[in-house]
Design a protein that fits this description.
The complex is a heterodimer of chains A (about 375) and B (about 260).
Chain A (H helix, E strand, L loop, with lengths): L2 E5 L3 E6 L1 E3 L4 H9 L8 E5 L3 E4 L1 H16 L3 E4 L5 H9 L17 H37 L6 H11 L4 H23 L7 H40 L2 H8 L3 H39 L4 H11 L4 H6 L1 H19 L4 H33 L2
Parallel strand pairs in A: 2-4, 3-5, 4-6
Antiparallel strand pairs in A: 1-2
Chain B lengths: L4 E10 L2 E11 L4 E6 L5 H9 L6 E6 L2 E2 L5 H8 L2 E4 L11 H12 L4 H14 L16 H12 L6 E5 L7 H18 L2 E5 L3 H7 L2 E6 L2 E6 H5 L4 H8 L4 H6 L7
Parallel strand pairs in B: 3-8, 3-9, 6-7, 7-8
Antiparallel strand pairs in B: 1-2, 1-4, 4-5, 9-10
Helix pairs in contact in B: 3-4, 3-5, 4-5, 6-7
The chains are: A alpha/beta (about 375), B alpha/beta (about 260).
Chain lengths: ~375, ~260
């Protein structure tokens, strides 16, 4: 019970008691709504017994006063009216702003409009992506003329972070994948008595495609996201603006070293993945198919052309460039809020993997045309 | 009635660095208490200890007579509904609008109807002097002064009796800072607030604070404003009678040496 109401000759008398706090808001509103005004001309509110009256509870009291006034009663307080009511009155004195009409969700034009927005937005994204690439090309050309501006120390750090520290995971995955390929193909080829061709499959598969592709996908997940998150949080923290204000081009200091670092690191990782993949194949052949190591090596040599290794590794710097571009581009786009940072980091990784696969398909077509 | 905030024998240490060594602090109801100290003196650490964000090495922190250093997380939650905090950079949630920022504590602690939620949150936004259309904006779209006000609105969301402000006027221009001082006094007067404020702003201290606590030598010296200005400690003398304080000394009726 937070109030007692009493009918008098002139109208209604309210005695408020207890704490009127935001935590009891529902009960207060209910009790106030339960007060019968029934033609009362005077409403007298006694707040002297209230132990606490906070602002939110006062809003409910104000609503009651408004209701009583609208019903034709004059409202008075025993003693001065609570300060809080005046505060609320001052704060709400301006009329609330008129919100522009938000169109409802079921307009027939809406899907069309959404489609149009996506198309235009997608096209803008392509254009600004191209502008980003152009900006990097200009910066890179400028830096080539003055090699100190390439920031070799920074590049070395990124080679270390994206390359050296990725060796364990790349090694592990290359090993496992080649073992899986060898095992699966051995089962199928055994039906034709052609187990020896497992060596061809593993060797060509790993060297031409799997070694470099898996490495690129792992690096896209590791470093593409790291680039976007690092540069993005520097954007949020105004560090990028600070660089610009000091007169340092952020493309030169942040973007280029990361991309160059990745272009250097990815081929090195791909070579390691190739080696470990072949080793995995050799181990499986040795212990599961009883193909001894010398025979494996001979068969391996017979199966590959002089170009097989290079056809795989030549793709690595291109993949490195694409991953670096996706990561840094999305990082530089971050504005305003931490939610943007998360969204763009996700976009960076997804797009990095997508462009890597797309580029791989184009390479496959190119090599087919060149007949290698 | 127990003091709103009572800190006894607080000890905090980071590695070899002793930050507080037996610090005492008492804030009575309806005071505006200013906390002052040099950079690195441990003002923010003191605040974090009081808020229960950090467990001190030794000592007790009582809010409304209850020791928060010995509370379980469940008990602490109830205490946290009774105070509001603003952080130095505002710490508004950047993914939420101003209105949603103010509604977040309400949603967390109370079951309110949507209409109440909107009305009460809007009232807080308007009360701190923000224009109504800013309620729908995101923190990134606000100016520094507006962020401080929005943070204050969020701190007031649950109608707390106790308010902690960490450098509320830092980074504001003098006019905005003065407006913030007036806002604070206005709310203090109408809402019976007790305010603990970390600040470096001498104008704010002289305009708003009833009492001031200075952290020197890992302890706190607290007194009324005129009392603390007469304190012989060299750091306190330098703080309140330095070059930047001359105007205030003159206003307080003391010779300022010019």
């Amino acid at each position: 019970m937070y109030l007692q109401s009493r009918r008098t000759a002139q109208g209604v008398e309210l005695q408020l008691t207890g704490p009127w706090r935001i935590t009891q808001l529902d009960a207060l509103a209910r009790e106030l709504a339960g007060v019968e005004l029934g033609g009362a001309t005077h409403v007298r509110i006694d707040t002297t017994a209230v132990t606490a009256l906070d602002l939110s509870a006062s809003v409910k009291l104000r609503d009651f006063v408004t209701r009583a006034t609208a019903a034709g009663a004059s409202v008075e307080f025993s003693g001065p009216p609570p300060d809080q009511l005046r505060l609320i009155a001052t704060a709400t004195s301006e009329p609330p702003p008129e919100h522009p009409e938000v169109p409802g969700p079921h307009h027939i034009e809406e899907p069309v409009e959404a489609l149009g927005r996506r198309v235009v937005g997608g096209w803008d994204d392509v254009l600004s992506g191209l502008a980003f690439v152009g900006r990097i090309a200009v910066t890179a050309l400028g830096a080539l003329r003055a090699p100190r501006r390439l920031r070799p120390i920074s590049i070395a750090r990124h080679v270390y972070e994206t390359g050296i520290t990725a060796i364990p995971i790349v090694t592990l995955i290359a090993f496992l994948i080649s073992v899986i390929i060898a095992y699966m193909s051995a089962q199928q080829l055994a039906r034709f008595g052609a187990e020896l061709f497992v060596v061809d499959l593993v060797t060509i598969g790993v060297l031409r495609e799997l070694g470099v592709l898996l490495t690129a996908i792992i690096v896209a997940g590791r470093s593409g996201s790291a680039f976007a998150a690092e540069i993005g949080s520097m954007q949020l923290n105004e560090e990028v603006d600070a660089l610009r204000a000091i007169g340092v081009d952020p493309f030169e200091a942040l973007v280029l070293p990361r991309i160059i670092g990745l272009i250097i690191a990815l081929p090195l990782l791909a070579v390691i993945a190739d080696a470990v993949g072949l080793l995995g194949g050799a181990l499986l052949c040795r212990y599961l198919l009883d193909i001894p190591l010398p025979q494996y090596l001979i068969r391996m040599n017979e199966s590959i052309a002089s170009t097989t290794f290079w056809v795989g590794v030549i793709k690595a710097p291109v993949f490195g460039l694409l991953i670096g571009l996706a990561g840094t581009y999305r990082g530089m786009q971050v504005r305003g809020s931490s939610r943007e940072l998360g969204r763009l980091t996700t976009v960076a990784v997804v797009q990095a993997i997508f462009v890597v696969l797309l580029a791989d398909a184009l390479f496959a077509m190119l090599f087919m045309q060149l007949d290698i | 009635m127990a003091p709103r905030v009572q800190v006894r024998g607080l000890v905090n240490r980071f590695g070899a660095q002793l930050v507080h060594d037996g610090l005492d602090m008492t804030v009575e109801a309806k005071e505006i208490f200013g906390v002052v100290g040099g950079s690195g003196a441990g003002k923010s650490v003191l605040l974090r200890s009081i808020l229960g964000l950090q467990r001190p090495l030794a000592g007790t922190v009582c809010l409304n007579g209850e020791d928060v250093t010995r509370m379980t997380a469940q008990e602490m939650r109830a205490v946290k509904a009774d105070y509001g905090v603003t952080f130095q950079e505002g710490a508004l949630f950047s993914a939420l609008t101003v209105l949603q920022n103010v509604q977040l504590p309400m949603l967390e602690y109370l079951r309110l109807a949507d209409s109440d939620l909107d009305e009460l949150a809007m009232l807080k936004v308007r009360m701190v002097g923000l224009p109504a259309d800013s309620a729908r904006k995101y923190p990134a779209q606000l100016s520094g002064g507006m962020i401080k006000r929005a943070a204050l609105a969020r701190a007031l969301a649950l109608d707390p009796q106790l308010l902690f402000l960490d450098e509320p006027t830092a980074g504001l221009d003098p006019i905005s800072a003065a407006a913030f001082d007036e806002l604070l006094l206005y709310l203090h007067q109408h809402l019976d607030l007790t305010v603990v404020m970390i600040t470096h702003d001498l104008d704010t201290i002289f305009r708003t604070c009833n009492r001031v606590g200075v952290i020197v030598d890992r302890r706190m010296v607290s007194d009324t404003l005129t009392g603390i200005m007469d304190n012989p400690h060299p750091w306190i003398q330098a703080y309140f009678h330095g070059v930047r304080a001359r105007g205030h000394s003159a206003r307080a009726g003391e010779p300022d040496g010019t």
